[in-house]
């Protein structure tokens, strides 16, 4: 697939990721993180860092999950690769926090890792379907 195809796919995947993740963070699990991590949370979000993370992370989902799935024309591959990408990246983050930050709860490790699997699998599948649509 040409670079322009992936640029369009990326731009169409960004809002999908934001809608799903912000629904989780801002509505569904908002109180969960505040309750579990109140002793560590900053009162303000460093938005440039947050947006940079999101933009880089979405590129990772496209590279490691969506592109191989499109090459195989396999929604199942998007699901599996997306889930694995979410598992490895979120669990790496969680275990690093548990190892280096005071009182990082095991409950957060489990819930957030499961969320990472769900989020990345969902975004990868949606992006795969958008990619199929773009390819015509």
UniProtKB/TrEMBL annotation:
The question of whether Aminoacyl-tRNA synthetase is a record keyword is answered with no
Segments spanning the bilayer are: 9-29, 49-67, 74-93, 113-135
Q: Which UniProt keywords apply?
A: Membrane, Transmembrane, Transmembrane helix
Alphabetical list of InterPro entries matching this protein:
DUF2177_membr (IPR018687)
Say if the entry is tagged with keyword Transmembrane: yes
Pfam families for this protein: DUF2177 (PF09945)
Q: Please report the name of this protein according to its UniProt entry.
A: DUF2177 family protein
Give the species: Thioalkalicoccus limnaeus
């Amino acid at each position: 697939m040409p670079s322009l195809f992936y640029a369009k796919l990326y731009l169409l995947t960004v809002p999908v990721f934001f809608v799903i993740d912000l629904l989780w963070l801002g509505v569904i699990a908002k109180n969960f993180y505040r309750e579990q991590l109140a002793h560590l949370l900053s009162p303000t979000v460093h938005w440039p860092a947050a947006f940079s993370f999101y933009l880089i992370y979405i590129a990772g989902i496209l590279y490691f999950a969506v592109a191989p799935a499109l090459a195989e024309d396999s929604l199942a591959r998007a699901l599996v690769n997306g889930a694995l990408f979410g598992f490895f990246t979120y669990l790496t983050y969680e275990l690093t926090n548990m190892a280096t930050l005071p009182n990082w709860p095991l409950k957060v490790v489990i819930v957030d890792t499961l969320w990472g699997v769900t989020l990345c699998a969902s975004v990868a599948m949606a992006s795969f379907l958008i990619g199929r649509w773009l390819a015509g």
